[in-house]
Known about the structure:
The structure holds two protein chains of two kinds.
Chain A: H1 2-14, H2 32-59, H3 62-67, H4 72-83, H5 97-121, H6 127-132, H7 136-163, H8 165-173
Chain B: H1 9-21, H2 23-48, H3 50-70, E1 111-114, H4 124-128, E2 133-140, E3 146-155, H5 156-162, E4 171-176, E5 181-185, H6 186-189, E6 195-200, E7 203-204, E8 214-216, E9 229-235, H7 242-246
Parallel strand pairs in B: 1-9
Antiparallel strand pairs in B: 2-3, 3-6, 4-5, 4-9, 6-7, 6-8
Helix pairs in contact in B: 2-3
Amino acid sequence: MIVMIMSGWQIHNAYPTLPFEFPKPLTLGGWLGGGTRWHFAAMWVLMANGIAYLIYGLASGRLRAKLLPIRARAVVLDVKAALSGTLKHDDLATYNSVQKLLYAGAIGASVLAVLTGLSIWKPVQFHELTSLFGDFDTARILHFLAMAAIVLFLAVHVLLALLVPKSLRAMIRGR
Amino acid sequence: MTKKLHPDTGIILKEAASRLDLPTRRSFLKSAAGLGTLTLLGGCDVVDGVSAENLLSKMSDFNDRVQAWLFNPRHLAREYPESMITRPFPFNAYYPRAKVPIIEPEGFRLNISGLAGKKDDWTLDRLYALPRFTQITRHICIEGWSAIGKWTGVRFSEFLKRIDADLTAKYVTFRCDDRYVTSIDMATALHPQTQLTFEFDGQTLPPQYGFPMKLRAPTKLGFKNPKHIGEIEIGNEFTGGYWETYGYNWFSGL
């Protein structure tokens, strides 16, 4: 995912969607051609991982059990608790409502990134998919927004994990 | 004498039992960690070195094969109404606008080489007499921008038949009068929207868009649509192209 983001920033810089460029040290590939080579190589790794993760998560019921239900009231309560520093992390295996919402959102943004990516990679061969997002130019903007959502999630995720150090142990050891 | 238990036995057993709860996860993490370390060890090299370039080139070749397999000659690029044409249409080349070659129509000859039955040169008058069709399609650049334009010319498959080209050959190579070179696969060359273009937006193709002729293939990225074509070669030998030698993916289909 990181390779996709950094090489994607390189490609963005060739003809910026938004009126800014990503700092050169944060990009991968050296120039547009190198960026596309990384992007079109790493996309297979991302897709293979994503498909395996989703098939396993859906078939085993794990995604459902871990992420559902998400209730608006519970999310509001947990946000309040988090901001006042009283959110409990006693059982790290059970996600709180904000976690559920953000993890589901990150999965959704990743799926959107892959689908919009496919639709700007092959707007003729996958024209049905491309027209689902409008056309090539709108799909390209959605591809950018999906990336922005993933980056935002990553930033929050890493920051909060560092604030609750025992969660890092749980991520690696499983408890 | 009863055997004395080690003071840590309880903790050890607890630890062991909890390990048994997650055997799959553990063995997975173990092998994953091994794999991860391996890639990290190669890391420095992988980003800057020759091995990374080799791997990326292999992936690019693999992507050529995947795209050739994905290519369906019956899938047409979307056509747009006149009202959506991008005006002014962007100029793009590997050189600035001031370096656009000025080609005199009188002395111009298009050369044919390679696997074709009729290799005599083509004058512009002869080319202009060929049957024409018009397309309004989206030109998509590898940089990410796109623009809708209107191009008129002869169906390239029709032209290939007129020169008695070997349609089972693998590649068609374009050598251009601005020293640009690129090549495409025969399947794309025969696609019904692939066009040898003489007009842009109802006018004779102006110099900045490729006078006297360009290839318009709406199923390919912009850099696979060469301008100022001077020679067309049919062959089975891979010839690559200008940007392709720098690392752009060769097939670059849409």
